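stuck on whats below:

***
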Amino acid sequence: MKPVLEIGALAVIDPVSEPEIGDIAMYEIQGNEVIHRIIDEQGGQYIFKGDNNQIADFNPVAKEQIQGKVIFYSNLPAPLVRKARNLQE
């Protein structure tokens, strides 16, 4: 989600709020958690895209897969988290 969220950023997720187009939200797919922006809603499913990606995420996301929307984030701990977890920037 660069440039808004760096890899390893701290994100607070609100699981109760209704997701809306334009929100940054977290969803689960195949056991992985993804944080991207909602860019569209089609037939009750949401279309997500990372801000730094050229194309939308491959599969539409059902509302049940959405774990919540980001209500606060901080990139401050990102460098430490990346180093501790050996993540690529």
